Amino acid sequence: MARGTRDLIESTGELRAALLAYKKACEAMFRAVEPGQPAISTLETMECLKIREHREAVTEAMAEFEAARHRVRLELVTAAQDEGRNLSDVARALGVSRQLTSRLGIEAKGKKREGEQRLTASGSSSGGQRAESRCAPADGRTRHPGVLSAARSTAPGSLRATTQPPKPAPVSRAP
Q1: pLDDT digits 0-9 by tens, 22-64
Q2: Closest by CA position to 4, among listed 51, 61, 69
Q3: pLDDT at 83 over 60
Q4: Are 33 and 45 within 8 A, CB to CB?
Q5: Cα(75)–Cα(107) distance, integer angstroms
Q6: What 3-state DSSP class applies to 140?
Q7: What pLDDT does 128 receive?
């Protein structure tokens, strides 16, 4: 858990630096743009100040931060479950909803199971085959924790997660 926490702290610092650089670029743009100027000069100023690059750096830093935070939450939920804590206690301690904690618990169990299956698969060739065939569908699709198998099925008459929304009722117009 220490490694995940170090990664989170590092990504927080990187996000902060990216946000500060973006803020400085936006402030410089604000000072450079005079009221009543045409939009094209504002766009040219933005290009000179490399606003796009700063925005992309912020977006990338935010994604890295979110991934690091997610890994730490997974580690905390796993540790709490191993200690026998219930999801409500874990949710309260993390300051998140019980539903999010439940999803994290399902994901953590899936990752734990995958790790155990990899260990089993590396231990013996025949045992590894059975473990692999139980965790992955024969057609090569990956399973997603928390998603019902029927929702991914392509059999006729089965449920589909990508069904189209119902069509709206026709609107009648008065003559």
Answers
A1: 999 888 888 877 777 777 777 787 888 888 899 999 999 999 9
A2: 69
A3: yes
A4: yes
A5: 11
A6: coil
A7: 42
pLDDT given for residue 38 in this prediction: 78
Segment holding 110, helix H or strand E: helix 98-123
Query: Which residue in this structure is represented by tokens 């045992």?
Result: 127
DSSP the chain: -HHHHHHHHHHHHHHHHHHHHHHHHHHHHHHHSPTT--HHHHHHHHHHTTHHHHHHHHHHHHHHHHHHHHHHHHHHHHHHHHTT--HHHHHHHHTS-HHHHHHHHHHHHHHHHHHHHHHHHHH-HHHHHHHHHHHS-TT-PPP-TTS-HHHH--STT---TTPPPPPPPPPP---
- Which tokens sit at 93? 């301690």
DSSP state of 98: H
**Is pLDDT of 136 > 80?**
no
Compute the average pLDDT of residues 77-94.
89
Q: Is the CB of residue 131 less than 8 Å from the CB of residue 121?
A: yes
What separation in angstroms does the CA of 56 have from each of 18, 51, 63, 98, 160? 9, 9, 11, 33, 36
Tell me the pTM. Answer: 0.58
Give 53-68 pLDDT, tens digit per residue. Answer: 999 999 999 999 999 9
Lookup: tokens for 116? 């155990």
Provide the total of helices (H) and of strands (E) in the chain, helices listed first.
Answer: 7, 0
